[in-house]
Write a structure and sequence with these properties.
Keywords: Cytoplasm, Deoxyribonucleotide synthesis, Iron, Membrane, Metal-binding, Oxidoreductase, Phosphoprotein, Transmembrane, Transmembrane helix
EC number: 1.17.4.1
Largest sheet: none
Structural class: mainly alpha
Radius of gyration: 21 Å
Shape: globular
Family: Belongs to the ribonucleoside diphosphate reductase small chain family.
CATH superfamily: Ribonucleotide Reductase, subunit A
Number of strands: 0
Number of domains: 1
Cofactor: Fe cation
Distance between the termini: 57 Å
Enzyme class: oxidoreductase
């Protein structure tokens, strides 16, 4: 069962998903992405090659929760300070619920509205990956938290934790907003995956820098890479829109998301609990927001530098040793290969 707030959203979203909104930026007649497409049931011939390549990139990055080794984490968990355990468990509680909210939007809104087959392929695969993310976070909570009452408290974070509820409500309200066009909502969910997740990802990577929690930090690598791709895809869909929201509208959405995320990680659940600097975290969130604004085709808002050098070293296109047993740039063998890449040649270099 969904919490009451989600049930209300489901009903509202279902009623509005197939409507043509008053906002002209959402009109199927005006937007090729939303226009009725009788060929949407067949994939070929590919019409949007850039969107299709994003889908293939997502497909190549498939992984499952079973591939993450948590065997060493419990020993590390027991050695953490109480405030460090508190911080990690509450961040995981937010993550465990947030992926379900992202999927709620995909199922109830985006996949109902977008008529382009290539984009529907991506959204369908994203739904599967968000399920895996949610499973992973739930598994982490289940592994670390032994008290059943505390586990239940964390699993129900949308209702039990005000700081999590505030972020969740912001995203849920965008799902049910019948006055906002597709373009505005694409920006809002790019902010959810690009800004709401960014500070928490950085906090977990901070633990990796300290050599802690290898299972948690490895899953964080995989999930942050996926969410980065989902955010990139949202920006790509935005670029394909004919009638885009104004710079003022986009700026308002992004700044609102930044304020909520800064409050979450510097006041409600301050990163100082794990030894991070709150002011630098605020700056990092602004840096990430500027990067998102550029990707959406607008100028920066904050114009700040990345204060976390360790985040510069974590490339989602990483140069990990090919022979390492488990690598954060995990990719299915051959999925991104060209048609001749696996052909045996006598003139090949060995």
């Amino acid at each position: 069962m969904f919490p009451p707030s989600l049930n209300t959203t489901r009903i509202l979203a279902s009623k509005t998903a197939r409507k043509i909104f008053d906002d002209e930026s959402s009109s199927p007649k005006e937007e090729p992405l939303l226009k009725e497409n009788p060929r949407r049931f067949v994939i070929f011939p590919i019409q949007y090659h850039d969107i299709w390549q994003m889908y293939k990139k997502a497909e190549a990055s498939f992984w499952t929760a079973e591939e993450v080794d948590l065997s060493k984490d419990l020993q590390h968990w027991d050695s953490l300070k109480n405030e460090e355990r508190y911080f990690i468990s509450h961040v995981l509680a937010f993550f465990a619920a947030s992926d379900g909210i992202v999927n709620e939007n995909l199922v109830e809104r985006f996949t109902q509205e977008v008529q382009v087959t290539e984009a529907r392929c991506f959204y369908g695969f994203q739904i599967a990956m968000e399920n895996i993310h949610s499973e992973m976070y739930s598994l982490l909570i289940d592994t670390y938290i032994k008290d059943p009452k505390e586990r239940e408290y964390l699993f129900n974070a949308i209702e039990t934790l005000p700081c999590v509820k505030k972020k969740a409500d912001w995203a849920i309200n965008w799902i049910g907003n019948k006055n906002a066009g597709y373009g505005e909502r694409v920006v809002a969910f790019a902010a959810v995956e690009g800004i709401f997740f960014s500070g928490s990802f950085a906090a977990i990577f901070w633990l990796k820098k300290r050599g802690l929690m290898p299972g948690l930090t490895f899953s964080n690598e995989l999930i942050s890479r996926d969410e980065g791709l989902h955010c990139d895809f949202a920006c790509l869909m935005f670029k394909h829109l004919v009638n885009k929201p104004s710079k003022e509208t986009v700026t308002r959405i992004i700044k609102n998301a930044v304020e909520i995320e800064q409050e979450f990680l510097t006041e409600a659940l301050p990163v100082k609990l794990i030894g991070m600097n709150c002011e630098l975290m605020k700056q990092y969130i602004e840096f990430v927001a500027d990067r998102l604004m550029l990707e959406l085709g607008f100028s920066k808002i904050y114009r700040v530098e990345n204060p976390f050098d360790f985040m510069e070293n974590i490339s989602l296109e990483g140069k990990t040793n090919f022979f390492e047993k488990r690598v954060g740039e995990y990719q299915r063998m051959g999925v991104m290969s060209g048609p001749t890449d696996n052909t045996f040649r006598l003139d090949a270099d060995f």
